[in-house]
TrEMBL record:
Organism ancestry: Bacteria, Pseudomonadati, Pseudomonadota, Betaproteobacteria, Neisseriales
Gene encoding the protein: ygeA
Listed Pfam families: Asp_Glu_race (PF01177)
Keywords recorded for this protein, A-Z: Isomerase
Similarity comment text for this entry: Belongs to the aspartate/glutamate racemases family.
Keyword Acetylation recorded: no
Stated name of the protein: Racemase
Organism per entry: Neisseria zoodegmatis
One example GO MF annotation: amino-acid racemase activity
Length: 229
């Protein structure tokens, strides 16, 4: 079994999901009392949030690159960045270490294509939806992205940071996300990517008329695949 290094804390709520999914899947595959070989470094999310708001992605990248080096020094064989948004600076992390980084977009694109779909909606932070790094990498893998409107993006973003990252699950916010999913369906989306690792706390598969691709679960399962390969 290979050692999985998790760069976490963005937010702590979603990092808990990664830890649970990875360990439960490892046990399901190996049986007995088996669990995953994991090392984790959890950053202070407030520091990252302030750098995001300031547009200082270089400084944010430096923080996560240092986290990656710590995990490599602790014996990690592979890295998982437990957040979608910060994959914006994935290249900085990759350049800081010698071990591979499992990219959330690659894992999610593979899951979409495995279902035979090629046109999906995307829910995530404002940065993930509007900065291009996510949709462009998806496009290179043959997956076309449908985006919510600018006003919808603003409210989706607010709910993530003011509610989901703080484990506040509100019925009204769930209803709002469901409305956005229906509008994405009207735009031709065949499925929807939950492109923020906290959205799975709010939306489940039976809540929506389209297939949902929970990036946190998909990414965590890809880490298990690597560790047990």
């Amino acid at each position: 079994m290979k050692t999985i290094g998790i760069i976490g804390g963005m937010s702590a709520e979603s990092t808990v999901l990664y830890y649970q999914i990875i360990n439960r899947e490892t046990n399901a595959r190996l049986g007995g009392n088996h669990s995953a070989d994991i090392v984790m470094h959890s950053v202070d999310f407030e520091k990252i949030v302030r750098l995001q708001k300031a547009g200082d992605w270089a400084a944010a990248g430096a923080v996560l690159a240092e986290s990656a080096r710590k995990l490599e020094g602790m014996g990690a064989d592979v890295l998982v960045l437990a957040t979608n948004t910060m994959h914006k600076i994935a290249d900085v992390i990759e350049q800081a270490v010698r071990i591979p980084l499992l990219h959330v977009v690659d894992a999610t694109a593979a899951a979409v294509k495995a279902k035979g779909l090629s046109r999906v909606g995307l829910l995530g932070t404002r940065f993930t939806m509007s900065d291009g790094f996510y949709s462009e990498r998806m496009a290179k893998q043959g997956v076309e992205i449908r985006m919510p409107s600018e006003n919808e993006q603003a409210e989706i973003h607010r709910i993530i940071f003011e509610e989901l990252c703080l484990n506040k699950i509100q019925a009204g916010s769930k209803a709002y996300y469901q409305q956005v999913v229906r509008r994405l369906q009207e735009q031709g989306a065949e499925g929807v990517i939950l492109g923020c690792t906290e959205i799975g706390l709010l939306l489940k598969e039976n809540d929506c008329p389209l297939p949902l691709f929970d990036s946190a679960e998909i990414h965590a399962l890809a880490a298990v695949d690597f560790a047990l390969s």
